[in-house]
Structure prediction request, 429 residues.
Amino acid sequence: MDTIFALATARGKAGVAVIRISGPKAGLAGRMLAGSLPEPRQAGLRRLRDPDGQLLDEALVLSFGHGASFTGEDVVELHCHGSPATVSAVLKTLGQIDGLRLAEPGEFTRRSLENGVLDLAQVEGLGDLLEAETEAQRQQALRVLTGALGQKADKWRSGLIRAAALLEATIDFADEDVPVDVSGEVDDLLSSVAADLTAEVAGVAVAERIRDGFEVAIVGPPNAGKSTLLNFIAGREAAITSEHAGTTRDVIEVRMDLHGLPVTILDTAGLRETGDAVERIGVARAIERARAAELRVFLLDETGATEGLQPEPEDLVVQGKGDLASTGEFTVSGKTGQGVETLLQRITEHLERRAARAVTATRERHRQAMVRATTAIEAAQNQLSFGMDGAEIAAEDLRTAVRALDSLVGRIDVEHLLDEIFSSFCLGK
Prediction:
């Protein structure tokens, strides 16, 4: 296997740049540059030199032995000064060593997967952690990265394997008197795993929203102050405002962090009947996006009309332009800021209640694998409902469920996913 190397920190000027080397010749390469390596997992200051003896840099050097590194291979890290020239010189020198090559995007992490250091769910968690912008995203990604989903999958898998083993024992001793009736234990095992999987599947949609961001749509009639409110929340002129109705024709998005939750606020076209063809398209888009959003804020004018879209029980209904007339129980003004803090607090409370239902599984791939497992368990339960005569078919159904859980953490049937997953990683990962 090739020994690979890459810059593991961001490009550009920095105080420190970390260059990672992984593979069978990592130790040799490190010694060629540094003269000697410190003991594994201990840092040492070394002078790095090229093959001609020219000084490249004075760097902190760390080494990790086979099986005790991020990739599971021999790894050497060079913590150099972070100037582009220094990094370029060190990378150029490494590229001249026989058997070394520059890593491809995500190749360090891929080797970690192939060497059993991380499972596929943990790899996805690492990708999410690298992309995390809010505290909720960081916490969720860290749970997946530390193996929480894999631990659940192993627990479910063990229960199904135990149930299948009991059924197969019944099949093997079909012509003899089996001293223990296993049906009760099998039923308990399958019911427990199926209940856990059903709960996990139900929370995937919320977990996806934490990863990708919640959407909150501001909707209402034209000229109710929606764009002015969006601008106040954003702290900038994100949307054009005018006293003329129908100014907003398309959906305008502002992404923000609300108490650690990723939220995109949508300003939509005013809801009304119109003869303008372009405005009609804007209204249709507004209704479509609003219906797909996690929460809608209905900003009303003095008429209280909600043309084309009605509030749902959890939606927020607010009176707009509170600086001109304070009518209704809850009024806001994007011009003066009146009531905006209260509005954001109510939005946050609503989304936090939703986020509390999030689970460890965070992707549609995870959901599909768990649904396949649940379907197979239900098929096994159906077979057993007619008695132990269906034990052989039920055992095969349980093996199907186990294979679905294996695909959840990347043990089987995921090779076609790997290129897509790792292509989004940077070179140093």
In short: The longest helix spans residues 148-172. Residues 126-203+362-410 form a domain with the Four Helix Bundle (Hemerythrin (Met), subunit A) fold (CATH 1.20.120.430).
